[in-house]
TrEMBL record:
Annotated positions binding Mg(2+): D233
Protein name: ATP-dependent 6-phosphofructokinase
SUPFAM superfamilies linked: Phosphofructokinase
Regulation: Allosterically activated by AMP.
Keywords of this entry: Allosteric enzyme, ATP-binding, Cytoplasm, Glycolysis, Kinase, Magnesium, Metal-binding, Nucleotide-binding, Transferase
Record's subcellular location: Cytoplasm
GO BP term, pick one: fructose 6-phosphate metabolic process
Any one annotated GO CC term: cytoplasm
Entry cofactors: Mg(2+)
Record field: catalytic activity: beta-D-fructose 6-phosphate + ATP = beta-D-fructose 1,6-bisphosphate + ADP + H(+)
Recorded coiled-coil stretches: none
Amino acid sequence: MDLSLAASSSSFDLLLSNPHKFSLFQLNHDLSLKSKKLPTKSLFWRQNHPFRVRALNDDGFVLEDVPHLTDFLPHLPSYPNPLHHSQAYAIVKQTFVGPEDAVAQNIVVHKDSPRGVHFRRAGPREKVYFMPDEVRACIVTCGGLCPGINTVIREIVCGLNYMYGVDDVLGILGGYRGFYSKNTINLTPKVVNDIHKRGGTFLCTSRGGHDTNKIVDNIQDRRINQVYIIGGDGTQRGAALIYKEVEKRGLQVAVAGIPKTIDNDIAVIDKSFGFDTAVEEAQRAINAAHVEVESVENGVGIVKLMGRYSGFIAMFATLASRDVDCCLIPESPFYLEGPGGLFEFIEQRIKENGHMVIVIAEGAGQEYVAQDMQAADERDASGNRLLLDVGLWLTQEVKDHFTKVKKMEINMKYIDPTYMIRAIPSNASDNIYCSLLAQSAVHGAMAGYTGFTVGPVNSRHAYIPIARVTEAQNTVKVTDRMWARLLASTNQPSFLNSNEMLPM
């Protein structure tokens, strides 16, 4: 065994018997070690990624682990999980998740390929690292609205109380800046009983306002020891900074993230909460556009849906509707004029059917709009690029082309349901999903995990290093079968010139 990569055999015995109490170390000579075979049962930091990676054996099994409080508080005592005495969990054949249970990132593999990356399976552990009467938890929501936020809040509160007997939970009002500039609210099951029936966030939200030192100072001052953070990629990056500062100060504080984005652009996880609701609600807007354009001569309806960088809502809403003639997303460039362009397709479809419905994601065609409007690159408080209204721009372009160039009268209808979709309560599917997310976060924090986020990976909930869900955005792969299914459904052109190739 190569001692430059791995500890002694006795150290590995310690690792396997209690992985959380094994000290981590940084590889300082990655370049010189590239040609060396990775030893079995080694533990190391993946270069450029602040999360743990453990290779357990020679079949290519890799566990991307999450931090644990005992990594920097090695003498922290543990206690039997209160679920030992839970009537609800008494009926479960296997109440607790095993220490070696893992979830595979890739479920489809070749026969002789390595087993690949895995994450710790989420769920209750046999031991917890907090006494219930000593827990003071807090919940904060940041960023834009999304269906299901209130359900997550409710289920964190109820999960802590009903499963673990925790009755001291604070709601931080107004996003990250609420830690040091606003009051808190005491959250009990009674207080949050029916908030899942409302849209928005019961705790209010904001963008920006992240000051790590001030936030952790407030966490210390209020004696908070569990922090639940609901938000998108920027919010989760903030959660990672909070965890790092907590670790630096040696505080017994578990930091758990619940990823939120209506666009479904969070990496690793199967989908984000609120997405199913958004796709379902988008059907109403598409249906309205279809009714409008069917009722007039040469009707063209344009529906703009959410999707800053990822066109998942537009794609799935189009597939679900079957009334859409063309779907435009940021990942698949399109052009207006010339053979194979959008104008040609609109004219062809109007001649065939007498009407047409176009769904466009808000991030599609931004380069064209920016050129026409000579817009500057402006950003919001979260650092997101402010998008121009591609829906209004496309509506005007289509109208001008057919009335001025083609001398053809058309009836344009434009619908933008963005804020109507964002503001509604979550549907049944998302309510169940949000409950599972919240309970998984509670189980993880009580078990002493920290600096993690939760989500389904191949339909099994897992604890994922925060860096993994913020390092890249999930986007529609236009070389995959799902996009091909959409093209087959709408029969729209790919908008690719013969000399253009899609990136693999």
